[in-house]
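Subgroup meeting minutes
Present: P.N., E.W., G.H.
Scribe: E.W.

1. P.N. recapped why we're keeping a running log of single-chain structure predictions: easier to compare across weeks, and new members can see raw inputs and outputs side by side.
2. G.H. added today's entry (95 aa).
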Amino acid sequence: MPHGLYDLVFVDPPYPTTYDSGADSQLAGLMQVLTRQVQPDAIVSVRTHRRVTLLDRYADFKVLDRRQWGTMAITLLALENACWFKDDDEENDDQ
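Output recorded in log:
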């Protein structure tokens, strides 16, 4: 594995900055930068207000899971070729 790359990244911006979560948002720009700074099977956790819905993909990341607690939501993203998605790909190949 490459050294100096992150396995786990927590993104916890102030709620008002996450209301714009589109393809040209600050979050999208950050995710683009993170593609070069994380391990191949890294997880990125993004905390937002529960009413904010993130895109299914940002750069090479795609949503792995989303959970809500009270007024907040956590969205977990991983690189699209990460081990977390291997079972999904194998199931689709079997059909």
